[in-house]
Design a protein that fits this description.
- The chain has about 350 residues and is of the alpha+beta class.
- The protein is built from 10 helices and 16 strands.
- The chain has 2 domains: about 5-220, Glutamine Phosphoribosylpyrophosphate, subunit 1, domain 1 (4-Layer Sandwich), CATH 3.60.20; about 235-354, Rossmann fold.
- The protein has helices at about 20-25, 80-90, 105-110, 165, 180-185, 235-255, 270-280, 300-310, 330-335, 345-354, and strands at about 5-10, 35-40, 45-50, 65, 70-80, 120-130, 135-140, 150-155, 155-160, 200, 205-210, 215, 220, 260-265, 285-290, 315-320.
- The strands form 3 sheets. Strands 4, 5, 6, 7, 11, 12 and 13 form a 7-stranded antiparallel sheet that branches.
- α7 links the parallel β14 (about 260-265) and β15 (about 285-290).
């Protein structure tokens, strides 16, 4: 993962505060320990903390700019169809400076404007600053895999990948949103667009937010999941084959990386299927990681090992001891708001282990 942050001044003549964005990025070093960057252009400052995955060279550092430095971008996530997009864009005359998947966002925006997000396949939260049009665009992937928080106030808009980064801006008072807390008690999470902080919002999944000429517009959906279009063509066997093809292709395109890949393996249906399909698309054993508990009747390690043995993975196991509450303060700091999924505790340890 990476971390993005930025601010836009409503007063287009004002000099935006670079130090504010630097503080926000410093609060998210854990998201991107490999590199960092800042860019001030007009009324906007963009910041980035980098975790290098594709194209490890300095040319892939962010913020990135287009050929004439009029458009800037920061991206957290991965664009899975970047190879096809890049080939098409190069055919249209665009010149690339790196091999990074993130750079296609710049040139895709030049071609399609705010509708460029319709062409992306991936998990992402991103910001594009178009200086000639004085337009800032924020966007989040269709299912909200990558987070993006923002606060719109009298002086402008600030945004960040984490609530902790947004708090570091000092742009708002840290007051609880009591309606959001009520929703958490009822639903066990805080639904978008609310957050636990009054005046701070999540950009909903599948939405974009456009700020233009100092005006912050309401977020608008560019994607909605549809359940009212049933499929009646083909037999059950045909649909089974189509489903397998779709899942396999989804796994394959996520395996593009310039650093080692692995998988969390619980032994359940989802992770077992992913590991099985990963094994089809690599010449080396898949690295798998599993977490269990001292009590055998609550541990999934035996099931994970069965899958690891079946597909010959390079398997690693760890056992979480009962003192898991010691990491709660760290979890609270990183989640930034109430969160009720107890799997966060063993997952934290497994992430540290890997």
């Amino acid at each position: 993962m990476c971390g993005i942050a930025g601010l836009l001044s409503v007063d287009q003549q004002a000099v935006p505060d670079v130090a504010t964005v630097r503080r926000m990025c410093d609060a998210m070093v854990h998201r991107g320990p490999d590199d960092h960057g800042l860019r001030k252009a007009g009324a906007c400052v963009l910041g980035h903390r980098r975790l290098s995955i594709i194209d490890l060279r300095p040319e892939a550092a962010q913020p990135m700019t287009n050929e004439d430095d009029t458009i800037s971008v920061v991206v957290n996530g991965e664009i899975y169809n970047f190879v096809e997009l890049r080939k098409d864009l190069e055919g249209r005359g665009h010149r690339f400076k790196s091999r990074s998947d993130s750079e296609v966002v710049l040139h895709l925006y030049e071609e399609h404007g705010v509708d460029f997000v319709d062409h992306l396949r991936g998990m992402f939260a991103l910001a594009v600053w178009d200086e000639p049009r004085r337009r800032l665009l924020l966007a989040r992937d269709r299912f909200g895999k990558k987070p993006l928080f923002y606060h719109a106030g009298r002086r402008g808009l600030v945004f960040a990948s984490e609530l902790g980064g947004l708090v570091a801006s000092g742009s708002f008072e840290k007051r609880p949103d009591l309606d959001a807390i009520d929703e958490f008690i009822t639903l066990q999470y805080v639904p978008a667009p609310r957050t636990a902080f009054d005046g701070v919002k999540k950009l909903p999944a599948g939405y974009r937010l456009v700020c233009e000429n100092g005006v912050v517009h309401e977020p608008e959906a560019y994607y909605r999941l549809r359940f009212d279009q049933p499929r009646n063509d083909g037999s059950v066997e045909d649909m089974k084959r189509e489903l397998l093809d779709l899942v396999e292709e989804s796994v394959r395109i996520r395996m593009v990386s310039d650093v080692p890949l692995g998988a969390f393996l619980s032994g359940g249906l989802d992770s077992s299927l992913i590991v099985a399909l990963m094994a089809r698309h690599t010449s080396q054993p898949v690295k798998t990681f599993s977490v269990g508990f001292p009590s055998q009747d609550r541990s999934e390690l035996p099931y994970a090992k069965m899958v690891a043995d079946r597909y010959g993975t390079d398997h690693h196991e760890m056992v979480v001891e009962p003192d898991m509450t010691s990491v709660v303060p760290d979890l609270v700091r990183h989640y930034g708001e109430p969160f009720a999924d107890t799997s966060a505790l063993p997952t934290w340890y497994l992430c540290q282990y890997t």
